[in-house]
Amino acid sequence: MTKTPIIAPSILAANFAHLGDDIKKVNNADWIHVDIMDGHFVPNLSFGAGITADVHKVTDQPLDVHLMIDNPEKWVDDYIAAGASCVIFHVEATDDHVALADHIRSKGVRAGFSLRPGTPIEPYLKDLDHFDLVLVMSVEPGFGGQSFMPDQLDKVRYLRAEIDSHNLSTLIEIDGGIGEKTITDAAIAGCDAFVAGSAVFGTDDPHAAVESLRRLATV
Ligand code: DX5
Ligand code: ZN
Fold first, then answer.
1. What is the dihedral of CA 171, 174, 179, 182, to 10 degrees?
2. What's the Cα-to-Cα distance from 48 to each of 25, 42, 51, 190, 215, rounded to whole Å?
3. Which ligand 1 atom lies nearest to the CA of residue 141?
């Protein structure tokens, strides 16, 4: 069955001096992916809840907030207040992923978890019903513009089978190295949502790039 893919441009690859203008260029995107990096969980810094709130003021598009930070428990409320539609944290950064997901959902916001490429999915399968989304990393988190890791599609296929066999509505999103050469394989493997940074904002026409990715992900 053909389903409509969700395309989520990552503003990490946008021009931060013209962020509002860049977001307008992708007004055809389904979600806006917001990468939060703390310089501890990943060796890079991006921006925080203040800029996320400013982004929310300039667009009605849902904000898909990807927290690559230590102690996410301490910060999730700030991102909910900033206008996140979905808050995604890393399972490697918390001792109680279920409690944190339940907390996020209790605020009326969708909850997601992400895993580094080397983190196995199996221990988390039993908790999928606490989550609206799983974000599979297809690069080591921390930087845009890296090469796609095709072996992560095994994780996607495994998750797809598990979600379908239990009739769950949890979405599978993939992040890292997604572009015209990789998005179709990710869609065939079973992804619902696709983050793309450099493949959107690194082109002359981000609006057209979103359309093209959506077409290539429709399988
Ligand atoms: C990486 C971030 C990604 C990044 C993707 O740690 O989570 O969202 O922006 O960038 P590209 O699409 O360029 O790989
Ligand atoms: Zn991300």
1. -100
2. 22, 14, 6, 31, 32
3. 6
Ligand 1 pocket by C-beta < 6 Å: which residues? 10, 12-13, 33, 35, 66, 139, 141-146, 175-178, 195-199
CATH of the domain at 58: 3.20.20.70
Looking at the structure of the chain, the number of domains it has is 1
Tell me if 1 is assigned to some domain.
Answer: no
Taking the whole predicted model, whether its pTM rises above 0.85 is answered as: yes
* Contact (Cβ atoms closer than 8 angstroms) between residue 2 and residue 190: no
How far apart (Å, rounded) are the C-alpha atoms in residues 127 and 169? 13
Mean pLDDT by 10 residues, the chain (219 residues): 91 98 98 98 98 98 99 98 99 98 98 98 97 98 98 98 98 98 98 99 98 98
**CA–CA separation, 116 and 99 (whole Å):** 20
